[in-house]
Design brief:
heterodimer; A: mainly alpha; 7 helices; 0% strand; B: mainly alpha; Rna Polymerase Sigma Factor, Chain: A; 2 domains; globular
Amino acid sequence: MSDIKTVWKNQATPEAGMITLSDIRARAAKYQSRIRTRNVVLYVYGLANIAITAWLLSTGRYAAFATPALLMVIAHLFVIWQVWKRAAARDLPGELGGHAALDFHRQELQRQHETMSRAWLWYIAPFIPAFLWEVWIRAQMPTPSVPPYADRMIVSMILLAGLFFWTSVWLWFSRGAARLQLQIKELDHVKAE
Amino acid sequence: MEEQDALYQRAATEFGASLARLARGYETDSEQQRDLLQDMHFALWRSLATFNGQCSLRTWIYRVAHNVAISTRLRRRARRTQLVGLDELVETADNEDIEQISSEHQLLSQLQMLIRRLKPPDDQVMLLYLEDLDATAISEITGLSPGAVATRIHRAKALLARRFRGESS
């Protein structure tokens, strides 16, 4: 079988000599710039959210929705912070060589699993109070030109659409978490051998 | 920084070819192989700032390389194909329709395809075995117990023997 090993080790690898220290420094700069860009995108999203809400409220047409709108902004900012925190944890750690591959793999799966299984808490729950509050206010403000039963139907549809959307998001995350849990179990099984 | 650079230069000189082979073992597409290889080098350079001899340089380098590959795979979730274990491949090797291998190049590409079908940590064990590392070193890099590594090496040998009977000689 040493023949196969010899063939494997003797394969030409011209690409091996093509990476220089200046390439590495360029890669480091690109890596930092990617992190900066990601942070800028998150800041801009947060600021745009605040600006649009402030503008809508300043027009006076949505004065009744002021409190839930502010709650919605807070929810967005909370989720942005969570995304930033979780994305930062996803960056390659510097001490990669300190972890055996199996432990590193499990740790990464565990981190992803934690993010997905707790998505209802950090991604869904923050939006729900503001959403329900907005629907409740909308239900208290019937549109004069629409018959009451039709108005109630519209409110119900908004409520159902929102619940359907958030349930779908939750199911999507839960399915991902279950898949990761299986992989973690498999690794634990291998580790126990 | 200078010490880190010097250590990296040494690592790249001694293990550059091994890292390139590992990248080929993990990725099919040449563009992705190059990307993975560059990521491995970058991660290695960064990691060497914290290297203080807690294990051998070789173990450190292989750990970094495999961990980068794992991380890339998890991030991209590119492998949609069903991955299998060495034991399953050994069992099915006899029934597979094996193409006639007429050159070393063909042998290598078949071998790489075989490795890419393996699920972790079997693919890691196979790659490290092909790099001629012993069971103790593979155990240190993968985190598997020496017994589990020995079992996998045995299966890897059986698989290679059945799959490439006399092809490389």
